[in-house]
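Tutorial sheet, problem 5. The two components below are modelled jointly, 800 residues in total.
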Amino acid sequence: MALRNLAIAMCLGGLSLMPVAGQETRGRLEFADEIRMVSCDPAASVPCFRIKLNIVDGQGKPLGLELPAPDKLAASMTVKAGEQELSPFYATIPSDATVAMRGRVALILIDISGSMNRVLASGPTRFDAAKSALEHYLTGFQDGLDEVAIAAFESHGVVEGIKAAKFASTRDEALQQVSNLPAPKPKNNTGLYSAVDMGLDVLKQKLANTGGGAGAPEGLLVVMTDGANEVFKGDDPGLLAGDDGLNMVAGRVTAAGINVVGVGFGDVSQIDEKALSRLSTKYYMASDLEGLKKIFTMTRTTLRNRVQATFASPWGDRASLAGRSMPVVVKLKLPTGETLTSGEKSWETPQVGVPLLEGKCEAPELLAAIHLNPPSGGGWMALLRPVLVFAGLGVSILILWFWVPWLVWPERYMGVAPGSARWAGQAQPGAGGAQAAGPAPPGFGGAGGVRPPARAPMEKTVLYPTTDVTRTRLQVRPDKDTKS
Amino acid sequence: MGLYQSLYYMSVAGGMAGLYAWALAAVIAAALTNQQNVWVSDLLAVILLGAFIGGLGVAFSDRYAGRRISAKWAFFGVLIGIVCGSLAAVIQMPITERLGEQSPILTRVIAWLLAGSLIGLGLGLRWITVNRTRAAHGYVGGLVGGALGGLMFAGLSGLAPDLAQALGFMVLGAGICFGVTLAPMLMKGGVLLFVSSGDPRAQAKFGRGKKEWELRQGDMYTVGSTSREGTPAKAGPGSSIFIPDAAIAAQHAVLFGKEGRFYVARHAEAGGQAGLARFVLRVRGKTVTSSQELRDNDDVLVGRTALKFTSRKKEQ
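Model answer (structure tokens):
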């Protein structure tokens, strides 16, 4: 639970928290994770999808609302998958205990550019305040469940430094990482875009190694900065910068499906708020301790207000999903009559292959699947169709291989057609057929047929001496030879 | 077998490779039930595609070039395909990550283009020592095949699941093999055409299919009755134009293109007085004693086998 709050806890001392997204006040659903395809076999033969959503207000802050009773939650939800409206067969609100048991994997990136040495109004430097916040947060670290890596970044050794981050699984190890953070140097600039880019890679790799399933830990990337992306001569070559760099990293954040919390602190006028908003799924500007407490509260509320649902695929089997993009929009009808709607999130299939199952349904999901009897995938058809496709295309290949060439190049397979000539001058009068190839080479001419005439008994082959080897002729045997 | 026939059969062989790759990928994918990494499916599909196209492409190419299919070279083709397929999948990952959600169809087509072009390029590189253009043609063939296959997959999957993907794989394979085979045809300066042979073995081997050997400027070809197993290096042991005729020496004649013209010369093994007496080599009915320029439509008699030379550059 401690790491859950970490994103915000770092915003430390003294500053007021200013949630910064839009100004809408109406509640809505927000996807908290990627849409995942899971197998509900043997309860259902169709592939199923698992979704997780947070209930937030228009500004992205957790919203406390009265939710439908657990037994009516699934019926209160509708999922629009592609063009089809579906009802989930299973929905639940995970308890805090459940979430706590899953743990969380967090990567925290701390800006150590030169400006972090500036002194806050309350006394400590920004850097010292950040370290204090981290230490405070880690008091709630759950050994064995949570994992955290704390890495510093500036404009030198950005990629190497973040790649080398080690995930601590105990509080002591994590505190050691905090105390080992290098102090900011005056000449350090800020490779913010590259840091987020590399942080995503490291966290995704870590999450991939922890295995999947509903019990897998959640990932959180926290990026804390007091300024903007600033890369100058003498910094690491190839650091991302400019609009192109920002667009690239923003695209990755959107596609990664990982919670990225941006924290800007210090002098708000010096922080590139626009970039921070694009580099994170949620960002905060903090300026005092009170704001820090609010962030703690919000994070806990978000976890309580999470809804998880599972619905059957509108298509009967995985092959039918290949090559598709399935936009998903979820609606939840509250007991008050109000309807919360999510934004559109797309489930993307592999680019070349068939989508693979990302896990299996848990026991409660299987029970619900059996009880609600989701649509059958037409089991035998799903098995038979690829066999038929293979057989059909295989027969086509055989036809193309053995039959079509006979039509295209008949002379190659049937020899010389009767009546046609191989050489010019051999064609039989009145006979059609292939055009002759030209005059016959020496030794291959015939007297009017494809085959040369048979030798007469009186003919023999005479080989001339080596001085005249080019002339091999058929000669009539002298009379004496035939007589003898 | 004629050049156009080779082109046709190689394209069909490429399609066959695509079909096998699709079937095997489908079987393996069915067994993977807990895969968190979504790229595994693409990696698997592209590697299998590369392996089948590489292996069958090299094997059939050797067969249609008149050589024996060498297990060593077929395995080498498989290896090339696997490496190039893996490379394509790795390059595709960041593209998918950055572009996948905004432009799914474009991303899909790019992935297929990448797979096709890299596998085609790799397969073409197998003949880099004899024909550099094959790599370029393989690349272009893979690009075209990949684009068509990708569009087919992205556009028709909803209408015909399985079929669209299988056809996409087949079109991609056919495109690569077409490109790789087209290169020698486009680059040829002349063609040596089998006409007929007095030796039943040669007649049986080449008579029906009307075998053609493409000749390129700058290359040297050995005509003989010793089969070369393996790479068709320009000059080395064995014959690049192998004719199983008992009247043809193991290394009988040499054909070469130089400064826009083609020449035939006696091989040293078939030269000298004894060679002249024993081994027949005639052009336009005249015995070649040392070397002789070939002109368009010349008849060439080697041993008991009649060949015809046609030049791309026609006589004025």
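Marking note: Chain A has two domains: 2-372, 384-409. Full credit if you identified this.
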